[in-house]
Amino acid sequence: MTEEIAAVNAPVSAIERLQLELPELDWITDPNRIERLSQDFSWFSPVLKRRLEGKVADTVVRPRTEDEIRRLVAACAKLKLPLTIRGSGTGNYGQTTPLAGGVVLDMTGYNAMLWVRPGVARAQAGIRLAEIEKATRPGGQELRCLPSTYRSATLGGLFGGGFGGVGSINHGPLGAPGNVIGLKAMTIEPEPQVVELRGAEALRMHHLWGTNGLVLELEIALAPAQPWLETLATFTGFDAALAFADALARAPGLAKREVAFFASPVPDHLTQLAEHLPRGCHAVLSLVAEAGEEAMNELVAAHGGSVTYRRTAEDVAKSNRTLMEYTWNHTTLHALRVDKGLTYLQTSFTPGEHVRQITELAKRYEGEVLMHAEFLRTMDGLLTCSALQLVRFSTEERLAQIIREHRDYGVRINDPHTFIVEDGKAGGELPEEVVALKRRFDPLALLNPGKLRHWPVRSAP
Description:
CATH superfamily of the largest domain: FAD-linked oxidases, C-terminal domain
Strand content: 15-25%
Low-confidence stretches: 1-7
Number of strands: 21
Mean pLDDT: 95
Number of helices: 16
CATH class of the largest domain: Alpha Beta
Strand order of the largest sheet: 14-11-13-12-18-19-16-21
């Protein structure tokens, strides 16, 4: 009897109070699901895998309406509960892993397509990118930029944790002016405010991993849709393959959506494409407008290559299989499935110097750092490459040394082995206007604590 009375009088935790206050919300309480929804693809990094082990939310909630989100946010603010925003968890840096427990806010139930107009569309943050293209393609439009994870990745996740992807060869990274037109965001306080941000001000929430605002809707620019021809061209020599990739990327008369360079032995790790990739070859993956096929084939022949894989847009639509899912960090995923001893880097090369830099670095780290480069335009519109090199991991010390040596060589490394924003993509202290936005939208410092250098982790109540 005494034990029963004690149980009745046991103090209620902040999480239990939250769930009691909002019983109508879609709460996820199964420990296995909570653990899964507290993770992303940070296991790509052995450093992050170690540092994030055991970090899980106390609960996960999946709201469906703005009112549900508002009531959740208000209650979390009153209870001082940490709040970590999540899309589909396709990020790679532990963006959605809570360091202080609390609540993971899964936005995937908040996923309406709001409208499509010439050159622009607006949708709720939890919509999957593939669903946006389903809505825009009938009107002859497509996304300007989409990651290789587009089938599952959400619009808000791309904005909060992504950089670029397929299409960046034309339109640059997502943060380039004109790609994101505006957004609607909610403040994290007992009386949440909903605010519309436009243009440059909206981009102050970009790639901040949901640390300085809860994005509800995004308005993004679109591009005219094309029937894309998907091809693999293979070469026996590194220099010829890289020269072809660069020539194709630079060719002004050839419309393209994607050009990726895989130096040997990277193609050997793409086992699902093995019949099209001779062992030991160097390969270039591309999406070129079907009307440009003849000109592209002439470029392949001029560089001594062979087209070993060819699929029209109709073929791709019928099969629902696309080479886009072998690009960007999907390349890393496919390689890790073959060799779990690999990890990766993220390197930005100098426009006009990228071919030389790629060649020199590939030779310097031959056998240890395997070259995979994606052609894109910079924020200034200059053509260059970003590399997602595969690295044969030995020790954390050696990995840190490789990163230092790349930086000493004169190229930028966006460190993918840290969960601190300033130490990774930001590459230094955040601009004051970004910090000011953090204070404005998260005055209680509850959003994804521990991911910004000057906002440390506080334990959940």
